[in-house]
Write a structure and sequence with these properties.
Order of helices and strands: EEEEHEEEEEEEEEH
Number of strands: 13
CATH topology: Jelly Rolls
Helix content: under 10%
Distance between the termini: 37 Å
Strand content: 35-45%
Radius of gyration: 16 Å
Number of helices: 2
Shape: globular
CATH class: Mainly Beta
Length: 182
């Protein structure tokens, strides 16, 4: 199997470690294989691929889409290094308001599966970071929502000692307790 699937402390969030075949020419890896993902509980049809580029100290998030436009995601950092964060926003979940944080980088080549019902964000730890991610649903502007990145109720340890660079939109996001998740 070309992947290791490591469930995280919040149910359904999975760290994916692809098998990397490398030699003096470079490397090869499979970044997605439907049969392996389905066999490991990720039974999601992906309908959109995204690619973002951010500079040092940029923080994007925390973003999600409300139903029926929710999105599951597989996130991979192909250049640079980030901390990737998934916050459980499923109101009936025992882990509502808790988060998972992992380092994704071009070196470790890990991916994070984030199911529908989670807000997503990341902070750039390198000069530049590029992310490629698969999404189960297409982007829908009317369903786009967010949570402020530094909400004290979630208390995310972003692992940074700098003031992050935020979009105007992300500076104005509401707190978790003010969110609309349905």
């Amino acid at each position: 199997m070309p992947f290791e699937f490591e469930p995280q402390r919040i149910k359904d969030v999975i760290l994916i470690k692809p098998k990397v075949f490398g030699d003096n020419r470079g490397f090869f890896l499979e970044s997605y294989k439907k049969s392996d993902f389905y066999a490991n509980g990720i039974k999601v049809e992906f309908n959109q691929d995204n690619h973002s580029k951010s500079t040092a100290h940029v923080l994007r998030g925390l973003h999600y889409q409300i139903r029926p436009y929710g999105q599951a995601k597989i996130v991979r950092c192909t250049r640079g290094k980030i901390y990737d964060v998934a916050v459980d926003i499923r109101p009936q979940s025992k882990t509502f308001g808790e988060y998972v944080k992992v380092e994704l980088s071009e070196e470790n080549k890990h991916m994070l599966y984030i199911p529908e019902g989670f807000a997503h964000g990341f902070v750039v730890l390198s000069d530049i970071a590029e992310l490629h991610y698969k999404a189960s649903g297409e982007y829908n502007q009317a369903a786009d929502r967010g949570i402020i990145w530094n909400d004290s109720d979630i208390n995310i340890d972003w692992g940074i000692d700098f003031e992050p660079i935020l979009s105007d939109k992300d500076k104005k996001q509401p707190k978790l307790k003010e969110g609309n998740f349905e």
